Amino acid sequence: METNPIPVVTVQTSPFDDQRPGTNGLRRKTEVFEGKKNYLQNYIQSLLSSIDLRDRQGCTMVVGSDGRYFSRAATEVIVQMAAANGIGRLVIGHNGLLSTPAVSCIIRKIKAIGGIILTASHNPGGPGGDFGVKFNVANGGPSPDTVMEKIAQVSRTLEEYTICPDLRIDLARLGRHDFDLENKFKPFRVEIVDSVDVYLNMLRTIFDFSAIKSLLTGPEQLKIRVDAMNGVMGPYVRRILCDELGAPANAAVNCVPLEDFGGRPPEPSLTYAAPLVDAMKGGDFGFGAALDADGDRYMILGENGFFVNPSDSLAVMAANLSCIPYFRQLGLRGFARSMATSTALDRVAKALKVTLYETPTGWRFFGNLMDSGSCSLCGEESFGTSSDHIREKDGLWSVLVWLSIMAVRKQGVEEIVKDHWAKLGRNYFCRFDYEGVDPRAAFYLMRDLEGVITDKAFLTQKFAVGTNVYCVERADNFEYIDPVDGTVVRNQGLRIVFTDASRLVFRLSGSGGGAGATVRIYAESYERDPERHNRETQAVLGPLIAIALKISDIHERTGHRGPTVIT
User: Fold this and answer.
1) What confidence category does residue 515 fall into, taking pLDDT thresholds of 50, 70 and 90?
2) How far apart are CA 322 and CA 354, in angstroms?
3) Residue pLDDT, tens place only, 246-283
4) CATH fold of 9-194, please?
5) Separation of alpha carbons 284 and 302, rounded Å
6) Prediction pTM value
7) Spatial CA neighbour of 268 closest among 258, 282, 254, 256
8) Does pLDDT of 346 surpass 90?
9) Which overall architecture, per CATH, does domain 198-424 show?
10) CATH number belonging to the domain at 426-566, selected among 1.10.533.10, 3.30.1490.100, 3.30.310.50, 3.30.70.240
């Protein structure tokens, strides 16, 4: 306990007009948060002030980061401002590190009012990279639109913030630290907790750890390789997969969290996890996985580098949840996917007679379904999958689901996926990202394209590409009516569905760091014939992509010669 009360200081400031959080919180170039005077302080004050004063006084909040550059300095500011604004207790991960799934888990476990996560997910780190501040609410999930709008309203008129600039906390010292503040009746408490403990204990209640351990250590030991991409997941991978489940230490690579993630974007994709892909192609490992900076996204690879499309991963998980004790006990209450995700999950839902929900992109939409008991498993095509055990995407949980399926079925990744296709058909799927597009050009492209596809004449269109003919069945701008509370969300992406179940989807992404807009094009084609399940994805989807490029005129309108990233 400090001997002299720490002063609470009010600082005059001016509002910023760009602090409305997006799908994943407020993301900007790191230099904006670090270099613009009071930019971070204004946003944290707006966030704290958006919580009703009666709820805020004496409440508990969780704070964690993915370890990227500027996280430690930002955590100190958050501690100082939380104290000054009446928060009673902060629970912070050791050295400031907590994965996004762990934050969600701890919020729910200790019944906190919410949590602040310092992450820009899979975006680059370092001084020249991106930084983000995300606020998760009491259910452990991302802020709903109402909360984001409240934060934005406060930010537009903010004239002052309160802070305890003399309060210092050692993030490396585990345990409780109490501070006396001026004009406060109760001491302010900071608890530095082990980053992995609570999350690991939760996983033990979900999975059969002994079955996974036997898979990784038994006579026919499965050799695995997991790349933590120098993000927050290093300590989790080592502790859970190596120490707890018996994988050898060299199964876990890039497990030291670095502020710049080793100089590469911490994105679990074929492009940015290329060293893992190369290692898997060598044939020495039967299972590979990569995890992003904050631990909510993942990629699965099989022997010889067999890539599992994230939409397929979601569908395979759904079809095999009986391999997981958690689901055997609780049963299945529904599946959900974002609209842009392939319809492979729909076919599993139909086969299992489970309700399927199609939502906009953004994990918060799944939260309502899970809170109401309507949904057991959900996922997005952007390498995010989870269940109702928390209210966030969960990369390591997804890895353990796959290992559980392999342990029960005694099959490799490729065999499991191809067996799934043989039973339910294959949904060929890919995504083209056009990054750094001029925001005005992106806006007008989407506006004009909507005009084209919603014209009545478009519904009679036939597109001939080579020997392929695609007939439009329906086209719209996706609108979602929440089945739980009736909330209506519009303008969630343009979609074209053809009579053969092929689809094209166009979306403006809300998860960038502020350097231009990202336009995403998704193409999907369903194939029932097992004889045609081993074709190259780009060859199958080439005709659909040609249609997408033609009707959107995206290359001419954006100045891009081609997509920035293909997944």
Assistant:
1) low
2) 14
3) 999 999 999 999 999 999 999 999 989 999 999 999 99
4) Alpha-D-Glucose-1,6-Bisphosphate; Chain A, domain 3 (3.40.120)
5) 11
6) 0.97
7) 254
8) yes
9) 3-Layer(aba) Sandwich (3.40)
10) 3.30.310.50
Which of the following is catalytic: 50, 99, 104, 121? 121
Residue 315 tokens read as: 């569908």
Active site residue 46: no
Tens-place pLDDT, residues 408-448: 999 999 999 999 999 999 999 999 999 999 999 999 999 99
Q: Is 483 exposed, middle or buried (0-12, 13-18, 19+ CB in 10 A)?
A: middle
**CA–CA gap between residue 13 and residue 16 (Å, rounded):** 10
Helical ranges in 392-524 per DSSP H: 395-409, 413-424, 439-453
Give the start-to-end residue ranges of the domains of the chain: 9-194, 198-424, 426-566
- Does the fold of domain 198-424 match that of domain 9-194? yes
CA–CA dist 538, 529 (Å, integer): 18
User: 464, exposed or middle or buried, with CB in 10 Å at 0-12, 13-18, 19+?
Assistant: exposed
**Burial letters for 319-330: b for 16+ Cβ neighbours within 10 Å, e otherwise?**
bbbebbebbeee
How far is 203 from 66, CA to CA, in rounded Å? 20
